[in-house]
Tripartite tricarboxylate transporter permease (Aquipuribacter hungaricus), 507 residues
Amino acid sequence: MNGFATALQPQYLLYAVIGVVLGTAVGVLPGIGPAMTVALLLPLTFSLEPTAAFIMFAGIYYGGMYGGSTTSILLNTPGESASIITALEGNQMAKAGRGAAALATAAVGSFVAGTLATLALTLLAPVIATLALRLGSADYVALMVVAFLTVAALLGSSASRGITSLGVGLFLGLVGTDALTGQQRFTLGLPSLADGIDVVVVAVGVFAVGEALHVAARMRRGPVPLVPVGGRWFTREDFRRSWPAWLRGTAVGFPIGTIPAGGADVSTFLSYSLERKLSRRKHEFGHGAIEGVAGPEAANNAAAAGVLVPLLTLGLPTSATAAIIIAAFQSYGIQPGPLLFENQAPLVWALVASLYIGNVLLLVLNLPLVGLWVKLLQIPRPYLYAGILTFAALGSYSVGASTTDLVLLFLLGLLGWAMRTQGFPVGPAVVGLILGPIAETQLRRTLTISQGDPSALVTSPFAATVYVLLVLLFVAGVVLKRRQQRVEAELVAITRAETESKQEVAP
């Protein structure tokens, strides 16, 4: 209730509205996913005090998630893999003249799933934080190993590429001055690197600049092939078919979001597979089934709230977007983890309360503003990506007012572009940069206490349990990935069969 008392104050409500509108406006642009949206708008919050900044940030986070569905439905351009299913069914609905119904079920489904998942976060997070207060340094090392290996193995197309990306991030985390010995490491003699590379510069460079270069390089020029919003609005029949899918999507998305098992993209594919199996209208799937939009969109937003459970209670990011949110906390000198609920209780509960408020604002603002978002989709590509690069440069320069940061920004942007081009995921690199120094500190502390005995890392009951669970998580992650690949293969087969049938009819 104290959180709501803070978040409902007029100035904080204004920040929430600004965050929702900005997050949706940037997230709706073609080729821009939630991670890039959050990274791009992260520097905007630096001039605010922490409570206002995180309330605004919560609106940006949820707004970016919602904006991707509009792009997928009307443009058939998913900003990330979690929006592929929405693009498949939602764009087919739009082409059939039911774009309004597709947008409505996505918006209402996002609201229902986001609210239920935030309620689960409210009840679950304090319990986990209380238990986490009993953890020692060896236990934290075990948690860091889980975060490193699962994120590296499950966020990429292959485990080897994910681990390579993680190694890049761990190396970047070593740049600077060693806290224990005072020795400078990998600074190339530059005084500006003595304090290390700012996480915000890395996040904006690898995500925003790298993604802008990648998308601009591979997407064609010319006008956007936009499908007009049309047809009847959300009917009673649409609601009858959608609400069970919303609840099932929430039940699938939230638990998968809380564990390092692939995040929102896995949950959307599993939700889609579940809806296909349970539906009495299997023939509509692949041709614009409303359940194929309602379930995955609910799973996507429920997973977004689920990601905040390990992030706030343990300081562990389970997705690329979560890694950037940790960077936002660290920019204010706040480290997410079990002590967050003790040391920053007013801030945490204001943030959680703002998630409820942000969900309501998304529903109230975005349904009437669909026409405005459609106009944003028609921005010419050269202006769009030039604007993104300029905004990224201004935001990164505002962090430390250093030209070195600008040079690093574009070097890291080129690195992010090269990684995407060669199929390397960028999420593990940011996770390695953020968690690497923390893992190093806890590892050295454990070995110091045990006088160099490495067995201390696995003899703790909690650490031993975590390593056993790590094996189980890997097995579960592989199974979920295979299920996702199977659904993708089925979708490719459906698309190919549809194309062949059209070619046969054409003569």
Notes: The two ends are 67 Å apart (CA to CA). The chain has one domain: 2-501. The mean pLDDT is 77.
